[in-house]
Every structure is written in C-alpha cells, then in structure tokens.
C-alpha cells in the first residue's frame, strides 16, 4: 500500500509539472513598458521575439503582462473590445472571439503574469503564471490580439515604441 501511495504521488507530481509550461522559452525580449492610466500603474508589458528584434507579423512572438491591480475578466474583455474598436478592427469573428475569451480570461490580481504566445505558424496560446489557460483557434485572432500593443494604430503609441525596441 505504501508503495502504491509513493507511485501515485510521483505520478501526480509528473502530471503537475507537465501542466506548467515555459511559454517564453527560446524567445528574447525586444522591449518592455509600463501602462499607467491617470498616474495609476496598471501593468508592465514585455514583448518577446525569436531574435529580440521586432518584425511585424514574423512569428514566434509573445507578450507578457504583469498586473499591478485586480482586474476582472469582464474588464479585460471590455478593454480588448474597446482597443479593437479604437483601432477600427473590422473582422467577422470579433464577437465570437469576445465570447470565447469569456472561457479563457481569468480575473487577475497583482503579480499575476498573463502571457499570450503566437507560435511560428500563427497559432496562439494564453498562459496565467506559466500554466496554459486556453487559446482561440484562429490565426487572424493571433495577430489582431497582439495588435492591441504592436499595431501602428494602437492607442498607446509610446508603450508600443518601447515594446518593439524603438524608444
């Protein structure tokens, strides 16, 4: 019986370790910046690419966001929608993506790290504190979500320049 418990314990640890991922493995930072809203720090963002040099649409890429405040998933989804509207993003799947994000996004708290990755063929994955939490199975979504920060139409141009290493 004791041997069975030891085997089950080891198996459990192996399973837990396999769930923890290294979403930024093999990537290098191209830049980082902090988002503040009316002098209130909201988060620090860092952009990663395979070479450390940002090239629009060249994957793999990832963005890591470390939050400084509690933010509900509803507010994260609203912010995503607002950014797409501000950038005049018009895609037939926008509404369905926002619904899918309800299943992916968590509520975040200070020190939580949300990572969004795009692999070399354009597939995406979300991670919270290095644990996979979901994806949106659409390559258009991958770039349009990342565009919130890296598009020339972003509402945060200074943050963008720091993230892509131009400031």
Question: Could you please describe the fold and organization of this structure?
Answer:
The chain has 167 residues and is α+β, with helices and mostly antiparallel strands. It has a single domain, classed as Chalcone isomerase (3-Layer(bba) Sandwich), CATH 3.50.70.10. Helices cover 37% and strands 25% of the residues. It is built from 5 helices and 6 strands, in the order αβββααβββαα. It has helices at 2-19, 73-86, 94-104, 139-150, 157-163; strands spanning 28-37, 40-49, 61-67, 113-118, 124-128, 131-134. The protein has a 6-stranded antiparallel sheet with strand order 1-2-3-4-5-6. Helix 2 (73-86) runs antiparallel to helix 3 (94-104). It is globular and about 35 Å long. The model is unreliable at 4-20 (pLDDT under 50).
Please tag this protein with its features.
Chalcone isomerase, 25% strand, globular, 6-stranded antiparallel β-sheet, alpha+beta, 167 residues
Summarize this structure briefly.
This protein is of the alpha+beta class. Helices cover 37% and strands 25% of the residues. The chain has a single domain, classed as 3-Layer(bba) Sandwich (Chalcone isomerase).
């Amino acid at each position: 019986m004791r041997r069975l418990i030891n085997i089950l314990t080891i198996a459990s640890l192996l399973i837990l370790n396999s769930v923890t991922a290294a979403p930024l493995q093999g990537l290098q930072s191209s830049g980082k910046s902090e988002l503040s809203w009316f002098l209130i720090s909201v988060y620090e963002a860092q952009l990663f690419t395979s070479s450390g040099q940002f090239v629009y649409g060249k994957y793999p890429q990832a963005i890591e966001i470390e939050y400084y405040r509690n933010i509900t998933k509803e507010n994260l989804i609203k912010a995503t929608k607002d950014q797409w509207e501000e950038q005049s993003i018009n895609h037939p799947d926008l509404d369905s993506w926002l619904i899918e994000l309800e299943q992916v996004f968590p509520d975040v708290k200070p020190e939580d790290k949300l990572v969004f990755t795009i692999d070399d063929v354009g597939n995406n994955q979300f991670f919270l504190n290095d644990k996979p939490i979901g994806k949106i199975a659409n390559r258009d979504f991958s770039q349009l979500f990342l565009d919130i920060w890296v598009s020339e139409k972003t509402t945060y141009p200074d943050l963008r320049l720091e993230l892509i290493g131009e400031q």
